[in-house]
Each structure stands twice: as C-alpha cells, then as structure tokens.
Amino acid sequence: MDLFLQTLLNGLLIGGVIATFTIAFQLTFGVLHVIDFAVGGWVVLGGYLGYYVTALLGLDGFVAIPLAFVLFGALGYLIGPVLYNVRNSRTARPELMALALTFGLFTLLRGGMLTAWGFNTRNVTSMLSGESLAVGPVIVPLIRVAAAVFAVAIAGGLFLFLYRTRYGLAIRATAENRHNAALMGVNIRRLSANVYGLYAGITAMAGVLMGAIYSVNPEVGLRYTLFAFFVAVLAGLGSVGGAVVAALMLGVIEAFVSTYVGSSYSLLAIFATLFVVLLASPKGILRRGL
Amino acid sequence: MAAQPMKSRWPGLLLLAVILVVLALMPLLVNNYWLRVATGALMWAGLACSWNMLGGYAGYINFGHSAFFGLGAYVTAFLMNDPFGLPFLATIPAGMMVTAVFAVIIGAPTLRLRGAYFAIATWAFAEVLIQFASAMDFTGGIGGIGLPPYLNERFFYYAMFGTAALTYLVAWALFERSRFGLKVKALRDHEPAAEAMGINTALVKLQTFVLSAVTASVFGAIFAYWVTFINPKSVFGGDITDQMVVMVLLGGLGTLWGPAIGGVTLFVVNRLIWMHWGDTAFYIAILGAAIVLVVLFLPNGIAGLFVRRKANALEKVAEKLIGGGGER
Q1: A262 φ/ψ angles, rounded to the nearest 5 degrees
Q2: Nearest chain B alpha carbon to A229
Q3: Which domain holds residue A103?
C-alpha cells in the first residue's frame, strides 16, 4: 500500500510538470493550427540551460527558469511568424508543410545538440537535490515537490493570463474562431508569433524542471514530444482543460508501469495506450478534439 | 500537374533509356564499393517513391514509414532463420501480407481524420515496433537478428534495381496515368469536393497507404538479406523515416521523378559525409536544416524547378512574397 501511494504521488508530481508544457502545446495548436514536433527539443534545451547555469555560473539550477522563459520565448517569437507563413501559404497542403517544418526543426535541434554536446546525460542540480520529504509512510524527493510547485505556479500564471487579461481573451477568441477574432480587430499574425514565443518559453521552463527530476540528453527530446502527443490525443487536439487531466493520467500511468512492470516497458505502455485511444476514440477520450 | 507538351516527350524518353542502360550495366562499370553505394541509392530512391505515394499524391504525411520497412526486414529475417529456414524469395510475399494487415489496422481508423492524427499514429506505431522488437525474445531483442549470409553484390544490386524500377513503373501507371491517380490527387487538393464527386475517399486513401507500406516492406526484405544483420534501430529507427521525408521534399512532393532525384542526391551526400567524417550526429542536423530550408524556399522541390513554366511566373512571384516573409 505504501508503494502504491508513493507511486501515485510520484506520478501526479511528474504529471504536473508535464501539464505545464502540454497546456502551452494545446494552446499553440488552437491558435496556429500546427502540431509542433519540436516540443521535445524545447524541453531538452531548457534542461541544458539549467545544467549550464549550474556548471558555468555555479548558481542553483532553478535560477534558470526565468532565464529559459526569456531566452527561448524570444527565440520562439522569431520562429512564430515563419511557422505562421508556412501554415497559411498557398501550397497544396499547408497543414502538412507546417508539420514538416516543425519536424525539420526538431531534427535540426536534435542533430545540433548531439553535435555540440554529444550523448552524455546532464543533470540540473539544485540545493534541493537529494533531499526528501516524509509524508506519513510516503517519502517524496523534495526536488519533485519543488518542480511540481513551480509547474503549478507556471500553469496558474498562464491561466490567469488567459482568463483575466484582454490579451488572453484575444488568444482564446483566436483559438475558438480565428476568422471572427480577426474581424474583431485581432492581429492574428502578431498574436500567433506571441503565442509561439509564450509556448516555447513555457516549454523550456518545464524543461528545466524535467532536467532537475530526470537527466537530459539530446535523445530524450523524442520522449517529451511523445508526451505532448499523448496528452493531445487523449485530451483532443486543442483542448486546454483536457490537457491537465490527460497529463496527470500520463504521469500516473508512467509511474505505475515503471514501478510494477519495469521502466523499459513504460514507453511501450504509453505508445500502446496512445495507439489504442487513437483507434478507439480518435478525437480524444473527452471527445473535444478539433 | 504533369501536363506534358508533346514535343518534350522524346528527349525525356531518351534520357530515361540512357539512365536505364547505365543502371543495367552498372556492375561492369564500377568497383564493389561503388556498386554497394549504387545499390543503396536505388533502395532509397525506391523507398522515397513509396513514401511519396501517400505523402505526395494523397497529401497524408506518414512519420512512421520505417515501421513497414522494418516489418519486411524482420519477417524475412524471422522466416529465413532456423525453425522455418524458408528461401529468400518465399519470405517476401509473407512480409508483404503482414505489412498489409498492419497498414489496414492503422490506416482504416486514422485516415478518416485530419492528417495530423494520422501523422501521430504512424509515428507512434513505428516507435511501438522499436520498443516491441527490443523487448521480445523472438526478434532477438535489442541485439538484433542475423540472416544466412549471401555474399553476392550483383544479386543485391539487380534485386534493388528491379524492385525500384517496378516501384516507379507502378507509381507512374497508377498515379500519373489512371483514374485512380486522379482520384488520389483530387482528394489531396480538396477532400470534401472529391467526396462530393462520388469518390470513396476513405477507401482510396487506404488503398494508397497499403500500396505504399507494402512497397517499403519489399525493400526492407532485400535490405535485411543484403546486410545480413538487423536490429530494431537499424530498420525501425526514426532516422530512416526522416531520410525518406527529406528525400521526397527535396526532390519534389507529389511528382514522379522527385523522389528519385532527392533520394539519389541525399544518399550520395550521406556517403560522402560518411567517407570524410565517419558516422556523425552532424548528419542529423543537416537533415533537419535541409527539411526547414526546403519547406521555406523550395516547397516544390528540385523537380518543381523543371516543371515550372513561364505561365506560372505570376504564381511564383506571389509565392515569393508569401514565402519571402518567412525570412521575417
């Protein structure tokens, strides 16, 4: 029973971190109508930033969180318009050209990181690393708790921004119906760039947290892209609320398979679930997909 | 797209004949190393063509095409080994059938949805197969599985040559010269309109997908016998799909010769990089940069440069303006 509780808590904590970037991922799909394959690349870049902040500057790994937002937010802001142009170009299937573009971006990031940093894994270290917290019979690594707290703060901030500001209203309106939003005076092109920047920044922040919990190397990007897809499929593409539920489910599934079956089977289990959901209920288990 | 003016037909046919003769005589012209390179180039040209059937003509991007290449390879490896010990040729139809069954299972539900879901489903399927083949015993696990060696470079060259030629012949006959091809292109360009014209789009897409998958499996089978040893990464790996996607985009999406041009070009570049720097992660970065650059600046690929006529100059300018904004 203790093991069960421990696993459940671990899964929920990880799921919370996954939720931060999958919410942003869903938002990006809603606004830009692009599935971003590069999501895993942003996560890994954030993790590396966290590592270098510790290794080169000697600071606590979590200091990298705001840094990641600024740095990769700016990079995303530059990429956003390019993506928007391809998505709205006059080729036969702009949707798929945009998909190919993000796929290329992901491959470029992965290859570039492998070339620059090799296959070695790195850790984001913090003063909390190695500490743990006992809650009754359950022992939780403090770093996971901290990561989950940061994740909740980031997600909370995002929701406040989306639901309590005028700009957030514009974003939600665009996600719902871009044509009508444009008629109401929203500059869709600029808004898309901002949303992609916001998403890249948030994803990189989540990457710092992920790097603190697990380690990073350029190859694990694939795993986070998979996570984002899994959540997107379970929740239905573009559904932001569903993403939170689906991300927590993902965290729990992964934790239970790793603990009770073996960690080498966790990816297989995730893929198999993803696959079955795609076959059985392709618009998401909540049937909210676009 | 391929409205061919009558007068330009003969030079094209002549060029094709010359290429075929050179390819047929290749083993007499070059040494064993370059014969291996040529064998590989033909395989990739054929694989790119098989990917293009669905990706280019039907407009559905398959990010897990390596799954079918790998299925062909594994079925052949499995059946040629001990309990069965079947001859090579007998394993190919078996691989094709297994592949077709899987293609229907994946394609039937997901091809009805937006292209993005299909892309995710195929990608996930390929990754499942990697994980599965790495975890199971009968596939040899992560270490892989060996095949009875058959060291006859000429046999493999002609096997790849014949299969690639057949692939292009089928693609030409089906997609450029038949009602089926028109249906496929119609649904790519406007699916609701195609449906309204009475085309059973779900069926046509599924047929195209199965054809594309089965073709890849044949190349997988020959590849496995050729290299005599396969493991999950070497035949299911995502890099294989990446490479096919780049080849087709580079050569020209939805054209007959684009995949051949892109496939041969990229494979030769790959070999040259390999000769000079060895097996490097740098190649992955080049692949990624190539996809990005082609999508931004050459959305019709190399073949698109030749197909373009002056009448399209206006369209070109418009595209420049839109795509040019992509530099931001």
Answers
A1: 140, 140
A2: B120
A3: 2-119+138-280
